[in-house]
Amino acid sequence: MTNKYIWFDIGYTLLYQQREQVYVQYLKEQKIEMPFEKIEEAYHYADKLFMREYPGVLGKQSSFFYHWYLGIVNHYLELAFDLESQNRFIQKGIQETKPYWLPFSFTKDVLHKLRQEGYRLGIISNWDESGRQLLDYHNLTDYFDNIIISCEVGVEKPSKAIFEKAFKQGNTTNEESIYIGDNYYDDVVGGGKVGLKTYLINRFRDQGIEEIQYPYIIESINELPSLLKEENVYF
Amino acid sequence: MTNKYIWFDIGYTLLYQQREQVYVQYLKEQKIEMPFEKIEEAYHYADKLFMREYPGVLGKQSSFFYHWYLGIVNHYLELAFDLESQNRFIQKGIQETKPYWLPFSFTKDVLHKLRQEGYRLGIISNWDESGRQLLDYHNLTDYFDNIIISCEVGVEKPSKAIFEKAFKQGNTTNEESIYIGDNYYDDVVGGGKVGLKTYLINRFRDQGIEEIQYPYIIESINELPSLLKEENVYF
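Predict the joint structure of the above. Result:
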């Protein structure tokens, strides 16, 4: 048994959106075919752009930014559409695609393994009321000792306060904890403010974050169990 | 009399949009007050961002990009609105504001002076069918010996071809010509491809183009007549 605590972000750390599938449906309506990987890459680049240039925007209600986000995804794909009708189609698709957020194929296995090895696990996430429902829906809630969601605690990453609340609830410290997230600015910079070591997930290795000089990048949480076994890597 | 030829871009070189006024109307509906200069600056930054990061997009039909553009203007002003209803309001305001494009207060005076001093004058512009109507509406057409508009010639800046067509129609050369425009990437880079010396207009001096190392920046065409008199500045 160990006192080590591993905290996770939710979106693109444990779960992913079926957004590319919805976009493909829209392209189909426009009689356009495109490789799925290209669409994934465009969304990935749009995410990274928003994280870097427009912090906090992706956490707002979608009517405030989604046309804008789509404009950028389209642009990466060298496409242009009427943004009003495209956004309507896509929002409807998002509503109808249930569940819209899915666990990665390896998410449960990894959480299971880490618990078996005695790590305590937690969530620190910027999310609305649906955060807890999502974890319940996918039977993930029981893997976690503490779940800290911004809308419930009234503070969000990259503020120090959300991490401090997590340490308090988890009865742990920055030195006993590591954090895993996909947003350099919220997760690595935010975590850094409280001395928290953070592993940055980037599914496409350094693509989209070429400007970031950071040594701790992994492609997915699937790398965690073996990484944790390598001595001195984490703690 | 001289053989020297001065070519102009149209938007934000000779004419400007009443866009900030329309945005202010929208803010009024939302019961928000904001200094006009701050709004001008946000639009200026959005222009520069699009010119640099999304070349060609501002020339597309507005339904393809305007929500996106507004999202960025809002973001600079630390505001967030439902983009669909905001865009509807703003497009209606643009339609109803006639004329939506106006000459700068000094535009006619400067063109008049330059003609008096014997310069030949022309237009090289990326614009749709409304380009020629706009010049007619404001009684500007007669100042120009040649008017080259992208939609009429089927090529656009920064392509070499539009400048070559202009030289041919104007019976002039890159060495006898200078160009004045506000888009570094279309005008300076594009003009550079045919050895055309270009003065870059930036109303806020280097604000929004801090990354550009370019010596020939003016705030408006109002500086031209005296600049042209300083020997060796232009030719």
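The interface with chain B takes residues 54, 57, 60, 63-68, 70-72, 75, 80-84, 87 of chain A (CB under 8 Å).
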